Amino acid sequence: MENKTDTLAVRLFGSSISYMRKSLFRILSVGPIPNHIAFILDGNRRYAKKRNLNEGMGYRAGFLSLMTLCKYCCELGVKYVTIYAFSIDNFKRKPHEVDAVMDLMLEKIQGMLKEESIVSQYGVRVYFIGNLELLNEHVRQAAVKAMEATSNNDKIVLLICVAYTSTDEIVHAARESCEAKRARVRSSGAREGNEEELKVVDIERHMYMGVAPDPDILVRTSGETRLSNFLLWQTSNCVLYSPRALWPEIGLRHLVWAVLNYQRVFPLLERRRKQM
Amino acid sequence: MFLRWLEATILDFGDEMHKVYMWIWSSGDLGLRLLWHILHLILSTWYFIIGLMGSVESFLISSGLFKRYRDLDISKVQYLAVAIDSDEALQTLKVLELLRWLEAIGLRKVCLYDTAGVLKKSKEALTLLLKNERMSSETASDPLVEEKCLSLEVISFSDGKQAVAKAADVLLKKHYLSSNTEKPKLTESDMTDALGAIGYREPDPDLMLIYGPARCHMGFPAWRIRYTEILHMGPLKSMKIGALIKAIHRYTMVHQNYGT
Q1: Is residue A190 pLDDT above 60, yes or no?
Q2: Is domain B73-137+147-253 annotated with CATH 3.40.1180.10?
Q3: Burial classification of residue B172, based on how many CB atoms lie within 10 Å of its CB (0-12 exposed, 13-18 middle, 19 or more buried)
Q4: Model-level pTM?
């Protein structure tokens, strides 16, 4: 009898919190809601140290925060969420650390493929963005499988940047543009091809992040104010927000604060977007 | 008995919450708009209070009250970037005052950026005014005059994405159209060299200060801000030297691990 009441109490309390959150989102929706929010997941290791946990637990706590935040973004009406999961620079970390992150990633990607996963529940389409050739075979294959399996989901798009840096993305796009141009020159003849120089649209067509519009808000947790080679090309008109909370500590209040700040400067951003 | 009472209370609470939620949903646009404006009023009030506190702090910093701000290790800031909103960049005298402050603090290499290229038009005037001020305050034969000069780089939006496209074109002609290598392996250093070949040889800024209404880098050349610390200073018209000193001091305390 006591157990049933406890479960009922927990469920009703949960529903009340859910109602309050949805009411708050309904109020926020009076103003412009960002279409795309990007997150730099900084502070997992510091969180583990702060709570006397081993490093792996810091990343797991970070994953729970990620799922919660994705849920909130979906409820708010955000269409694209990008996360900086693993940078090319992070490969320089100690091998056991890199392996721990890769193992966790593999575990979570395989979890996504299950029917009852949060990804299926919320209709999340997943993209893995970055130089996937740098990942080990298992993780890369799982990533490709997850992208195929979620290709029909259409509620929200989650872009997971792994083995990614902005400069690598730019060089990759330049390389692809050059190869495409060379192929056009060879097939159509030298006279026609050489008259055109490579333009910004050619580069942008081959960017990894070309599958999504530019982000409206970029959140980097743990109070750091640098972009660390993340979405440098795409954030010309993006509001940067650096809450002091570590990534596993991020919550609804940070998301609401970010959206309110975005709404505050939205007219200016729209004007700049038209001018650019 | 107690458990039954608890169960009933929880169910009532749930009913109340459901009623509030349905009221918010059905109250229509007017009620929602009012609540939305209240939220934004709270945000504006918060920023007003932060602004007041910031003004007091800036005043105290510029009075030299805090020891840590007096002993600023300026050598850590090798290259400073200042991104200014294009509308605000039209206030040339304010920009000149900012450059004077930066020179007085001890900075030697500064990059000015604005999206529309307003600062490029005022670059000559700014350089001339700074030079005249220096000449009038020091003797012409002073050998240290040249060392104390502020080296100014001025760039705009066209020096960002378009520069990368031009650099890619250089790489196309060098590695693709003139060679038979099937798939040349382009690297980041090839891109850096190509950018250097078309005139972009300045180093990456360590710190970027944004003067404008929004915390946004406004299209500053992407290739150069990989690890740049970005701080928002607020509108140019309310710039304060104390806030500038605090921002530079904050930068000197940052430790970067570059992803490791």
Answers
A1: no
A2: yes
A3: buried
A4: 0.90
